[in-house]
Design a protein that fits this description.
Structural class: alpha+beta
Number of strands: 3
Radius of gyration: 16 Å
Helix content: 25-40%
Strand order of the largest sheet: 1-2-3
Number of helices: 1
Number of domains: 1
Distance between the termini: 53 Å
CATH class: Alpha Beta
Order of helices and strands: EEEH
Strand content: 15-25%
Length: 79
């Protein structure tokens, strides 16, 4: 199976955080991109083992995610 992962550079702790949008509660991290990706595979496998053990159906990714960013105006603070 194939799942989309989202990686985010973590400036506070260094390394990368990973979430799996299709599997709520499934997350991981790693010091490098390569480590974060490898760790995410293990996290997904463990998560899916739990799903199967609980007698639930393994979720399939419905559609690939589209990643976009938007620019917004932030209101000025009033004191």
């Amino acid at each position: 199976m194939r799942y989309t992962i989202l990686l985010r550079r973590n400036a506070e702790t260094s390394g990368y955080s990973v979430i799996v949008p299709e599997l709520p509660g499934c997350f991981s991290r790693g010091e490098t991109l390569e480590e974060a990706i490898a760790n995410s595979k293990e996290a997904i496998e463990l998560h899916l083992e739990g799903v199967v053990d609980d007698g639930e159906e393994v979720p399939e990714e419905m559609e690939p995610f589209v990643i976009a960013s938007v620019e917004v105006q932030v209101p000025a603070r009033t004191s």
